[in-house]
């Protein structure tokens, strides 16, 4: 087989202020027709930049400074803009990380689908629309005849991701770049999207570059894997070799991340007063009821993980506990005392005792405030410290979260990495000296190595400060790592709760089972086996057979 | 769709409330003008009795609150009152001369002329500035972009009368293509009217283009970093198509608002241009009426200006709402 993509010793620079610094430092890559390459690495490793470079495309402020990119013998770097445009969308297609952001909000899905084929002169609009509906059917979208006539905001994230894959397929390209297509999805949705992508890539013998930071995902999708670290190639091997016998230390460390697990703590004494007790709480946004009779307890020094898909009511429960959304029924107790439903009616001490750490550290920190002031504000507000005493306390807190105070206290959030920002979020919560912290998906925006560091820090703080955590997450690996008790939520109800070791041992509630079995595993055959287990009708082979 | 209708009704109610507040402000402000009609018309040597007689005749002796509600009540029914100036010429002559005396009769033809000028200007300026804005966004930071910016900024920074005289110099004096006087009257054919109106319309185009063009450019460029724009580029779409098909529909809301603001300006703020070209629009009538303290006409003009502003902004709001598919097609 001939080479479809040939990237030779490529160097890519990114501009920050007026200086150019390297993003990719001399990477080579080869891809045959119909082959799937997995690109893996942490954020900042240059995966997306390399993926786009394979299309001959660079974002603003990025330039290719050396090497060559060839697609089917055409040199993309010396090709004219018009020549490149004739390839993009037609022979090389792209599937972006967030389909919700990458579909144009002003046009219907089918119009965006047909745009490529029509503009490239491959098909007429009617032909392409008909073909689009077939692709929607193959990708197992519900109502394939109608879904295309909706606007992007009327379709769920998982469905949009599949519609985007269909759009990439519209001209039957030779190569598709998948840029973290399932990172923003729930595990249960992720499976459906992964299975659809894999099927369709196999059926049309399309070559693909699959970019992700999730090893288990790439193990299902790729024929071979390339590991990147800070713009350098660490190693490349075919998937099975890579998983069973990684050569480099860095690869091994990536592989080992999922091993972190805290031992199960002994059961709490039944007479102990829980720190936080959620009792029969129901809540509604306007007229829409989103929580139904939710009850669970959180004891001192314990972590309760609340798991479920997006929309299951996890964050709403947190909003009820903090008083941001007063429940319509039920009470929240703290140390045996009922809290006022609305946070405005709570006193300073009640507010101080429950703090939050947010999912997006980026948006949760004021970009124009220095770290010292971000942490200093709750120190002053709750603890009444000012001047030197305040500064000393802030320094203590920074040491607590393992960031040297002298280096970080005068920086702005934009001068920190994602993991460091999340640490600042933790320090800000600790500044109030609370007994209870709500962690809302605090690691889901982070790379696995960084996330592990945060989880270990939270565990250490819990032991030394006797903190109680409510840990909202959709990632069951995180649950395994840190939880003592688990609450499984679905559609605003608690479907199962109990100690962690019980949750990971059958029998389960069927929904818990679905969640657990949907977490990708490192085994390259995992997806195939799982789909076989779940039955042919589920994976839609029948529908595909009918097509061909 | 339900939500869109309720939003529109809400805006409509707010618009009416604003108009009411504005009417209070207009009435108060006009009444605070120094001197009154009676003194203005009778001059220095007027006897107090004569002044008093005219005041009484016109109802100016009533307390302001009574007069306000009378005026408002009539205005709601479409009766804007009688023009003092016309009424007095008639009554001093001791007979009904049959001259048009109501404010409505006086304003109507002038207002129609103003609307005609505004419409001609809008037909030239809006497409012109949006096209310029799109081209400037497409070739951003190029020589074309910079030249467009400098030219439009220069024209918006120059006084209107100066622009008017420059255009007269080039298009009427040096190359006599267009008439420099825009004295239109009843019974002119549409073509003649258009020819007479073209020069003031071009002047106004120069005045309003910069604002609209720059907003179009900025609104589009603002969106160019969006993931869906990158997606369109990665689908191999041409730069022009990316901007017109993918960026523009999402940039409509701010553009519509700026257009509305400029159209409102065309209806209410063109006194200088009307004077230069001797165009019989509502602006000139307004200024003349202020000079002779013809209060009913002044008030009516102000009310029309306010209504035009509110109505156009309302329209812009509604169009921006309709340009958003999230509101047009809720989940």
List the helices and strands and how they pair.
The complex is a heterodimer of chains A (548) and B (331).
Chain A: E1 3-16, E2 19-32, E3 36-40, H1 47-53, E4 62-71, E5 74-75, H2 81-87, E6 92-95, H3 99-102, H4 109-119, H5 125-138, H6 144-147, H7 157-169, E7 175-179, H8 187-203, E8 207-212, H9 215-221, E9 224-229, E10 232-238, H10 239-244, H11 249-256, E11 276-285, E12 288-298, E13 303-307, H12 314-322, E14 329-334, E15 337-338, H13 348-353, E16 354-357, H14 361-364, H15 371-383, H16 387-400, H17 405-408, H18 418-431, E17 436-440, H19 448-465, E18 468-473, H20 476-482, E19 485-490, E20 493-499, H21 500-503, H22 510-518, H23 526-534, H24 536-539, H25 541-547
Parallel strand pairs in A: 3-8, 3-9, 6-7, 7-8, 13-18, 13-19, 16-17, 17-18
Antiparallel strand pairs in A: 1-2, 1-4, 4-5, 9-10, 11-12, 11-14, 14-15, 19-20
Helix pairs in contact in A: 4-5, 4-7, 7-8, 15-16, 15-18, 16-18, 18-19
Chain B: H1 2-31, H2 37-42, H3 48-58, H4 64-76, H5 84-92, H6 103-138, H7 143-157, H8 160-174, H9 190-223, H10 227-234, H11 239-268, H12 271-277, H13 282-291, H14 295-322, H15 325-328
Helix pairs in contact in B: 1-14, 6-7, 6-9, 6-11, 6-14, 7-9, 8-9, 8-12, 9-11, 10-11, 11-14, 12-13, 13-14
Report on the architecture of this protein.
The complex is a heterodimer of chains A (548) and B (331). Chain A is α/β, with parallel strands linked by helices and 548 residues long. Chain A has 25 helices and 20 strands. Chain A has 2 domains: 3-256, Rossmann fold; 276-505, P-loop containing nucleotide triphosphate hydrolases (Rossmann fold, 3-Layer(aba) Sandwich). Chain A is 40% helix and 25% strand. In chain A, the strands form 4 sheets. Chain A has a 6-stranded mixed beta sheet, sandwiched between helices. Chain A has a 6-stranded mixed beta sheet with strand order 16-17-18-13-19-20, sandwiched between helices. Chain A has a 4-stranded antiparallel beta sheet with strand order 2-1-4-5, covered by helices on one side. In chain A, helix 4 packs parallel to helix 7 (157-169), helix 15 crosses helix 16 and helix 16 (387-400) packs across helix 18. Residues 536-548 of chain A have low confidence and may be disordered. Chain B has helices at 2-31, 37-42, 48-58, 64-76, 84-92, 103-138, 143-157, 160-174, 190-223, 227-234, 239-268, 271-277, 282-291, 295-322, 325-328. Chain B contains 15 helices and no strands. Chain B starts with a helix and ends with a helix. Chain B has 331 residues and is an all-alpha fold. Chains A and B meet through helix 2 and helix 4 of A and helix 10 and helix 11 of B.
């Amino acid at each position: 087989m001939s080479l479809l993509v040939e990237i030779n010793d490529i160097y890519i620079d990114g501009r920050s202020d007026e200086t150019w610094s390297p993003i990719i430092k001399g990477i080579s890559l080869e891809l045959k027709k119909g082959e799937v390459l997995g690109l893996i690495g942490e954020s900042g490793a240059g995966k997306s930049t390399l993926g786009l470079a394979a299309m001959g495309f660079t974002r603003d402020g990025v330039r290719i400074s050396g090497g060559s990119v060839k697609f089917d013998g055409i040199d993309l770097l010396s090709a004219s803009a018009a020549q490149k445009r004739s390839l993009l969308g037609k022979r090389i297609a792209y599937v972006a990380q967030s389909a919700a952001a990458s579909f144009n909000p002003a046009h219907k899905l089918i119009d965006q689908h047909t745009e490529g084929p029509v503009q490239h002169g491959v098909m007429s609009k009617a032909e392409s629309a008909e073909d689009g509906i077939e692709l929607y059917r193959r990708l197992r979208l519900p109502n394939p005849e109608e879904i295309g006539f909706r606007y992007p905001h009327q379709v769920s994230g998982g469905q949009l991701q599949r519609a985007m894959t269909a759009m990439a397929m519209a001209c039957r390209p030779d190569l598709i770049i998948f840029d973290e297509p399932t990172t923003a999805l729930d595990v249960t949705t992720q499976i459906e999207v992964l299975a659809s992508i894999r099927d369709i890539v196999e059926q049309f013998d399309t070559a693909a570059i699959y970019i992700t930071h999730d090893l288990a995902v790439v193990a299902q999708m790729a024929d071979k894997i390339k590991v990147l670290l800070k713009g350098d190639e660490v190693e490349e091997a075919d998937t099975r070799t890579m998983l069973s016998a990684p050569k480099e230390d860095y690869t091994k460390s990536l592989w080992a991340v999922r091993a972190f697990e805290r031992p199960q703590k002994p059961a709490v004494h039944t007479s102990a007063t829980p720190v936080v007790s959620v009792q029969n709480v129901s809540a509604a946004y306007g007229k829409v009821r989103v929580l139904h009779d939710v009850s669970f307890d959180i004891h001192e020094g314990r972590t309760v993980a609340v798991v479920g898909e997006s929309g299951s009511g996890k964050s709403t429960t947190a909003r009820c506990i903090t008083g941001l959304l007063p429940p319509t029924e039920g009470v929240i107790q703290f140390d045996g005392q009922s809290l006022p439903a609305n946070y405005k009616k709570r006193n300073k001490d009640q507010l101080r005792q429950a703090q939050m750490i947010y999912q997006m550290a980026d948006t949760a920190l004021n970009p124009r405030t220095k770290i010292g002031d971000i942490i200093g504000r709750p120190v002053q507000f709750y603890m009444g410290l000012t001047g030197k005493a305040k500064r000393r306390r802030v320094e203590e807190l920074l040491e607590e979260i393992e960031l040297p105070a002298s280096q970080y206290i005068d920086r702005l959030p934009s001068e920190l990495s994602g993991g460091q920002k999340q640490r600042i979020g933790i320090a800000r919560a600790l500044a109030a000296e609370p007994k209870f912290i709500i962690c809302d998906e605090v690691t889901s925006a982070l790379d696995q190595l960084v996330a592990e560091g945060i989880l270990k820090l939270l565990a250490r703080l819990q032991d030394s400060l006797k903190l109680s955590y409510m840990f909202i997450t959709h990632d069951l690996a995180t649950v395994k790592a840190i939880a003592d008790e688990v609450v499984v939520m679905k559609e605003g109800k608690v479907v199962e709760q109990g100690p962690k070791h019980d949750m990971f041992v059958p029998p389960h509630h069927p929904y818990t089972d679905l969640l657990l079995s949907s977490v990708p595993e490192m085994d390259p055959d995992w997806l195939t086996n799982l789909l076989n287990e779940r039955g042919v009708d589920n994976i839609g082979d029948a529908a595909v057979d009918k097509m061909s | 769709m339900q939500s869109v209708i309720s939003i529109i009704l809400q805006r409509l109610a707010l618009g009416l409330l604003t108009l009411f507040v504005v009417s209070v402000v207009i009435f108060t402000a006009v009444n605070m003008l120094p001197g009154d009609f009676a003194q203005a018309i009778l001059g220095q040597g007027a006897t107090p009795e004569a002044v008093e007689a005219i005041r009484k005749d016109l109802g100016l002796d009533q307390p302001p609150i009574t007069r306000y509600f009378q005026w408002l009540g009539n205005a709601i029914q479409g009766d804007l009152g009688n023009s003092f100036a016309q009424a007095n010429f008639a009554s001093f002559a001791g007979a009904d001369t049959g001259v048009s005396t109501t404010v409505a009769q006086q304003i109507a033809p002038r207002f129609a002329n103003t609307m005609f000028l505004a419409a001609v200007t809008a037909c030239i300026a809006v497409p012109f500035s949006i096209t310029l804005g799109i081209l400037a966004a497409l070739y951003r930071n190029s020589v074309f972009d910079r030249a467009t910016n400098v030219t439009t900024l220069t024209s918006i920074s120059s006084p209107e009368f100066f622009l008017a005289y420059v255009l007269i110099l080039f298009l009427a004096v040096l190359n006599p293509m267009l008439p420099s006087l825009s004295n239109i009257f009843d019974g002119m054919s549409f073509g003649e009217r258009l020819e007479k109106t073209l020069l003031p319309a071009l002047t106004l185009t120069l005045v309003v283009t910069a604002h609209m063009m720059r907003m179009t450019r900025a609104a589009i460029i603002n969106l160019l970093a969006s993931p869906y724009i990158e997606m369109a580029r990665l689908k191999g779409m041409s730069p022009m198509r990316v901007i017109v098909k993918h960026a523009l529909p999402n940039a409509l809301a701010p553009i519509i608002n700026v257009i509305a603001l400029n159209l409102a300006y065309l209806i209410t703020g063109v006194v200088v241009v009307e004077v230069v070209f001797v165009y019989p629009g509502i602006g000139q009538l307004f200024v003349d009426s202020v000079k002779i303290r013809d209060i009913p006409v002044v008030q009516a003009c102000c009310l029309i200006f306010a209504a035009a502003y509110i109505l156009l902004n309302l329209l812009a709001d509604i169009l921006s709402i309709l340009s958003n598919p999230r509101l047009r097609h809720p989940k």
